[in-house]
Amino acid sequence: MKLETERLILREVKLSDVKEITKKVNTLDVSRYLGVVPYPYSIKDAKWFINKCLKDAKKENRESYELAIELKSENKIIGVISLTKVSDFHKTATLGYWLAKDYWRNGIMKEACIEIINFGFNKLKLRRLNVKIYVVNIPSNSFIKKLGFNYEGTMIKSYKVKSTGKIHDENIYGLLKEDWLKHKNRLLKEMQK
Ligand SMILES: CC(C)(COP(=O)(O)OP(=O)(O)OC[C@H]1O[C@@H](n2cnc3c(N)ncnc32)[C@H](O)[C@@H]1OP(=O)(O)O)[C@@H](O)C(=O)NCCC(=O)NCCS
């Protein structure tokens, strides 16, 4: 499975990504916002993650797409974007993402998300995407609203983060297929400016 945008390739992770993933996730700037990612993050952790993704990718009714974000100009993985908890019955999935710090604020995750959201609604025929974001994660809350997701409520003290051990409140967001088209057109227009 592979998707492509102007600057990016979204592809399956592979064992040769192990060093880059370890290097890029092994900072609290990233892992403090990711629920199950340990800190410090070791080669062994990255191998476990990659093997899990490879196993998930082989399943007949695939429920998890955790894709490498590869920057074409550097030919290497700079983050991960995912649709997990893909339910063929409910036609829903959960969107997830992280990007290495050096690449923030260049519109990279926006570019990647537009592509995977299109994939979810058009190819997987989903009708709704879900995201949960810690209230303290200002960049991601702001990012998801920019994409067009609706804020639907807050769960109090709902999650303990593996890397920091802190307990966080989580904001819940949703995006319906019927609302996506207008947001997509707006986002594409913004990117052309
Ligand atoms: C959240 C994250 C993925 C954003 O990626 P990014 O590539 O920097 O985001 P983009 O450049 O595509 O930003 C798109 C929009 O999101 C919003 N945004 C992104 N980062 C922001 C920040 N630090 N503060 C405020 N708004 C922000 C802005 O509206 C931005 O549009 P603009 O640049 O035109 O103002 C990145 O900061 C990250 O990986 N953080 C750590 C991991 C994480 O939090 N993952 C999500 C867990 S829920």
Question: Can you give a write-up of this model?
Answer:
This protein has 193 residues and is of the alpha+beta class. It has one domain (2-192): 3-Layer(aba) Sandwich (Aminopeptidase). Helix content is 36%, strand content 33%. The protein is built from six helices and eight strands; from the N terminus they run ββαααβββαβαββα. It has helices at residues 18-25, 28-31, 43-58, 108-123, 138-147, 177-192; strands at 2-4, 8-12, 65-71, 76-87, 92-99, 128-134, 150-160, 167-176. Strands 1-2-3-4-5-6-8-7 form an eight-stranded mixed beta sheet, with helices on both faces. A hairpin with a 4-residue loop joins strand 3 (65-71) and strand 4 (76-87). The longest helix is centred in the N-terminal third of the chain and has 16 residues, at 43-58. The chain is globular, with a radius of gyration of 16 Å. 27% of the residues are buried. The model has no long low-confidence stretch (mean pLDDT 97). It binds coenzyme A (COA). Residues 30, 33, 97-99, 104-110, 133, 137-140, 142-143, 146 line the site of coenzyme A (COA). Coenzyme A is lined by residues 30, 33, 97-99, 104-110, 133, 137-140, 142-143, 146.
